[in-house]
Amino acid sequence: MKKTALSLALMTMSGLAHAVSGQVTDASGKPISGAAVEVTGSQLQARTDEQGRFVLDATNATASELHINAPGYSHKTVLVNGAEMDTLQITLRRSAIEQIDVTATPLHTSTMESALPVTVLAGDNLRSKQAATLGETLKNEVGVHSTYFGPVASSPVIRGLSGPRVLITQNSLDVSDASRVGPDHVVATEALTAEQIEILRGPATLFYGSGAIGGVVNVVDDRVPSSSEAKGAFQVGHNTVNNEEDASFAYTGGGEQFAFHVDGFTRKGDNYEIPGVAELEMDHDHEGEEGHEHEEQQEQSAGILENSASESQGFNLGGSWLLDNGYIGLAYGRLERLNGIPGHSHAHGDEHGEEHEGELAEESGAHEHDEEVLSDLKQDRWQLISELSLDNTLLSGVNTRIGYTDYEHVEIENNETGTLFQNETVQARVDLLLQEVAGWRGALSLEGKTSDFAAVGEEAFTSPSRTDTLAVALMQEKRVGDFLWQVGGRVEKVSIEADPIEWESHDHSEEHKGEEHEHEESALLEFDTLDFTPYSVSAGVVWDFAADYNAGLSLTHAQRAPSASELFSYGPHIGTGSFEVGALFDLHVTDEPHFDYSNSAEEEISNNIDLSLRKHSGDIGWVVNLFYNEVGNFYYERDTGFSSEEFGGHDHEEHAEGEAHAEGEEHEHSHDHGALPVYVFEQADSVLYGMEAQLAWQISDPLTVTLWGDSIRGKLKDGGDLPRIPPVRLGGRLTYAQNGWEAGFGVSHYFEQDKVAELETSTDGYTLLDAELGYTIPSAFGDMTVFLKGNNLTDEEARVHASFLKDRAPLPGRGFSLGMRGTF
Length: 824
Prior knowledge:
The protein folds into two domains: about 5-90, Immunoglobulin-like, CATH 2.60.40.1120; about 120-824, TonB-dependent receptor, beta-barrel domain (Maltoporin, Chain A), CATH 2.40.170.20. The chain is built from eight helices and 45 strands. The relative contact order is 0.11. It is a multi-pass membrane protein. Keywords: Cell outer membrane, Membrane, Receptor, Signal, TonB box, Transmembrane, Transmembrane beta strand, Transport. InterPro entries: Beta-barrel_TonB (IPR000531), Beta-barrel_TonB_sf (IPR036942), CarboxyPept-like_regulatory (IPR008969), Plug_dom (IPR012910), Plug_dom_sf (IPR037066), TonB-dep_rcpt-like (IPR039426).
């Protein structure tokens, strides 16, 4: 797939009929080494040598489009005639904003060249932002917030959307965990071993399907190596805010025909320190024993976030067969994580003498009468990835990705198994890279996925379900002068079926009013198989309207099939402390409020427009994105104002008993969580709009200033606001890098969020300060960097509005990280 300049030069001397060669320099004429030069739409690529020179085999095309990129420079596209033998002189201009290509899309996609707004974290920038969860790693990227379910579970929120609307992938395959079922569930991927993380903001449904109607986060690693080039990396660190220790390593090597990769990590931390108390004072007139109980809990939780300890470890092993036209590789990965679930500090009536194995139960800090909830996660993941170049009249290449994931996590309550979540997924995706026709190039994508999800136990709030998806998509792009046009369409077939649940029906006829509960009947409620056919179409253009400037416009019509949890949920969700009800159940507010099974659900329909303006070269670079997203039949979780005790109930213990006994388990008692607030999934026409802005100014060679900000507004069309929409925020950073030293100081301000949904509380504004200092020591074996970072330097109390736990779990307090990382 990749040929060095030397080998290509030898091929040229031995009689190669046509080739494209040239030199890449900067604006002053200095050669740029290590620049990537590739033929767009193919896998043919070369890198420049120390004199900036390259040679490419271009015998297969009379006209080729070259794409050139190098770190610290603005990307460039050059049209060449394959029959021309003259050496190309290519000049790259410096860029204050880092530009990195997205790896897994068949169309041009990078920070500055895509119609769809993109962010890519890689290299030292990624290493400095790595955190224990994916959401916390990405939370300071423009347009991205975090669900922050305490420090132990956190998923990305893109433009106010999260859950099943934001697809999380690993090497472009679904992570296939339970993180989109509830915010208390951990994303089953690890940033410590990632090589880059790609964020596609806005509908990315053409590439990834209807589950990406809000965006995509793709975690890229080298577990399936594409080359045998020897490279390694390591990192060790300590964080004072929770006494956390972490370590990771990765190595790729091999020979002429075989490459192998191995990586691993471990992370362990205690409860997080926080400013003040975890739980905000209740706005009530509690008297007597209950009031004293609350005061005691406030006193106990001061200074720490109880039940927030965690430990995790994992590894990946992979190997690839290297061919003349690409590679075929297979990898296996194992991930384990045990963590507390914060926010469960209310009194619990049972006492248990049993102790959970390991030290985490003691470290979680739960008090004698508090409810302790742990999550024990295990995931096995197989991936087969292949990228092959072809030479025929129809196809220029075939990229294949196949994944199998076996995921489970157990919620442990006071040392007893509460609920088991399982997700077994098989996914296959084939991208057929099409030969250029009339200037158009792109890919035909075929994809199939089957996901078996089950929640078994007393708090199994959603029924076991199976989701099958088949999809076909066509994506094309064409460059005409200063315009890059991108179009595409995708259609899917989604089938969802769920197991029956125990259901208490109520007779609410006039003649039986007043006869309380006499006409309730318990029976199995059978769900019909639901079929959806969502489709998406998109058109975009990138216009280079002036030197160093371009504009991007993207129009997307996308549909999304609802997730199984949005449809079938009916029961207590212990993680969020709520009673969740799916969209298939209609709430009737009468003298005796109740739910009826309606079997009515529609696809979500999004019409989105994105406009981007960019300055991509020079000492000052900036990006401004404006977006407007009108969503029909929007699924959102509404607080009804009722408690679970006001309904007839649902016997989850009886429903779970058969499954539990099938596993050889016994339920000795039931967990009584008292009255829980009832949240129901409803559909309503909504609109989300906002802006994102980023500016980078290279004041001098060592000194750079970065400013950024974003704003999101989410409303219901019939009036009112959507819940958990992040507030307006502004941030800035000053960085210095010279003679091996790197230093940075950052500030971010989150404004008050008072545009809230019915029964939702507002969130105060706050300002966070951070700083870092590092020194890199070069050697013949590689570079080693020693670093010191400080977060929340003023020990500010900060609560995340998008979090279900904003009133019970603030962000961590002041903390310092000391560590060392290196490459070899």
